[in-house]
Design a protein that fits this description.
17% of the residues lie in helices and 27% in strands. With 175 residues, the chain is an alpha+beta fold. It has a single domain, classed as Alpha-Beta Complex (Quinone Oxidoreductase, Chain A, domain 1), CATH 3.90.180. Strand 9 and strand 10 form a beta hairpin. This is Enoyl reductase (ER) domain-containing protein. It comes from Nonomuraea rosea.
């Protein structure tokens, strides 16, 4: 099996394709044959070393978090998924590993892939989908401490999440 990994923190030049032995799924984990994977800011920030306080300094490190594929095996305690299921999900934060032939992930981080969604599109959903959900789920109607359309985040200032307003029918200065 092959995976994209790095042996030290740095830019894209530290990445290499390497042979690896995928681990058997542990309790409450699934082993997935990856059909598509998606990159996001988390992947390159980890590779650059911007998150080393959370990820540690052990190498080599696998890359990639978001994936879509087919379940190959399940660990003890897995009840929602079975071998052969088409799924999408996210690898564990510290282990990563979605840029590989196979990846293990916790069952709770993997869901069935909708039949009419391609593997490529499904792989693009996990991180951005959860981010969007978390942003919109924090909007509470009838909450006097927040203005409609804004979300308070623990990591940043309020963000606008309301739909864009329609443009005026008449342009200024058009008569």
């Amino acid at each position: 099996m092959k995976r994209l990994q790095y042996d030290r923190y740095g830019g894209p030049e530290v990445m290499r394709l390497a042979e690896f032995e995928p681990p058997r799924p542990g309790p409450d984990e699934v082993l997935v044959r990856v059909r598509a994977a998606a990159s996001n800011a988390l992947d390159w920030k980890m590779r650059n070393g911007e998150m080393k306080l959370m990820t540690g300094r052990s190498f080599p490190r696998a890359m990639g978090h978001d994936f879509a594929g087919v379940v190959e095996a399940v660990g003890a305690g897995v009840t929602r998924l079975k071998a052969g299921d088409a799924v999408l999900g996210v690898a564990r934060f510290r282990q990563a590993g979605a840029f590989a032939d196979m990846v293990t992930a916790p069952e709770k981080a993997v869901v069935l892939k909708p039949v009419d969604l391609s593997y490529e599109r499904a792989a693009a959903l996990p991180t951005v989908g959860v981010t969007a959900y978390q942003a919109t789920a924090e909007v509470r109607p009838n909450c006097s401490s927040r203005k409609p359309g804004f979300v308070r985040s623990s990591r940043s200032a309020s963000r606008l999440v309301a739909p864009r307003r329609r443009a005026p029918k008449r342009l200024i200065g058009s008569g």
